[in-house]
Write a structure and sequence with these properties.
About 30% of the residues lie in helices and about 25% in strands. The protein is of the alpha/beta class. Helix 4 crosses helix 10.
């Protein structure tokens, strides 16, 4: 089979690999949809020679087609429609057993698509305990989104304990930010969406944002306070990975408010003297637990949310070069490879 391998320097290759065979405790999926994640671009843009030579793609969704010896669980059966929680740890420590294998401190963590072959290929081998069921009412594309991007927004809101009483500013309206806008509205919150890209602001409005802001138009915190009667928002979710957005998020929340940082790639400093007496809570959030991934999928089904609307680009594997050139512009919605 052929799979997409990042080579660094904004290049990639459709390389040839043997079809996977499941080992002990493993299954093989026939991939139906493999999402493109913003974090892919960190590997895509790295200098040549600094990228692991593995198949990319950590938003897998497909059907089980082979089951190895000792692979147990309700989803380790041929024909099961599944997503993948794309991390694997020792699976015996408290973090792993509580559904957070990415937090494992006992064994090296495997991240599919980085440390082991991912989903940008016709087939993918994973541990059976990473499987999460895909409801028949969800498309494979929707399952791919929940497997990381949409699930990341869900996990952040779980950390925040978002409610319908909140007004939330979502900084960045890429796939994670748009997912956050959709999920927050479905939970009854008021949403202010921010992005420098006009098409993304337009989509945010279509997804239910109560107001949109272009950060290039002027001071962001002032614009948010004008929209909130001078109070600021109770929650700011930063998904863009821009240092300026981190600072704006801190300046936009009301006293006792919460800032949650999700976007990767930026560094910023803050003055404790400036924020100490605001009682602001600052959180980080890294994707979601296994249970959170399933809860996100259940919520999407229960509320009838149209996650397929996240996708503006659907690609074949042989279009990988064009797909990542388009995605690298960071305009528009989410991309996905369909097999």
């Amino acid at each position: 089979m052929r799979g997409i391998v990042f080579r660094g320097g904004s290049t990639l290759e459709l390389a040839t690999f043997p079809d996977p065979t499941p080992g002990v405790g493993e299954v093989v999926l026939e991939i139906k949809a493999s999402g493109m994640c913003g974090s892919d671009l960190h590997w895509y843009r790295r200098p040549a020679g600094e990228v692991p030579p593995v198949i990319a793609g950590h938003e897998p969704c497909g059907v089980v087609v082979a089951v190895g010896p000792g692979a147990v669980g309700p989803h380790a059966r041929i024909g099961a429609r599944v997503m993948v929680h794309h991390y694997s740890g020792c699976m015996g420590c408290p973090d792993c057993r509580s559904g957070w294998p990415q937090m494992c401190r006992t064994a090296p963590i495997t991240v599919y698509g980085t440390d082991a072959h991912g989903a940008h290929a016709p087939y993918m081998k994973v541990r059976a305990d990473t499987l999460v069921p895909l409801n028949e009412r969800l498309s494979f594309e929707a399952g791919a989104a929940i497997s990381c991007g949409t699930g990341t927004a869900w996990g952040a809101f779980e950390r925040i304990d978002l409610s319908g009483r909140d007004t939330v500013a979502v900084f960045g309206q890429g796939p994670v930010g748009l997912s956050a806008t959709m999920l927050a509205k479905a939970q009854g919150a008021r949403v202010i969406a921010l992005d420098i890209d006009e098409s993304r602001r337009k989509t945010a409005k279509e997804f239910g944002a109560d107001a949109v802001i272009n950060p290039l138009d002027g001071p962001v915190a002032e614009a948010i306070r004008e929209l909130t009667g001078g109070k600021g928002v109770s929650v700011a979710l930063e998904t863009s990975g821009a240092a300026a957005a981190n600072r704006d998020a801190l300046d936009s929340v009301s006293p006792w408010g919460t800032v949650c940082l999700v976007g990767i790639g930026s560094e910023f400093s803050l003055s404790l003297a400036k924020y100490l007496r605001t009682q602001v809570r600052i959180l980080t959030s890294w994707t979601m637990s296994v249970q959170g991934q399933r809860a996100c999928a259940d919520f999407v089904v229960d509320r009838g949310l149209n996650l397929d609307a996240l996708f503006t680009d659907r690609w074949r594997l042989d279009q990988a070069q064009e797909a990542y050139q388009v995605f690298n512009r960071q305009s528009g919605g989410k991309g996905v490879f369909l097999m």
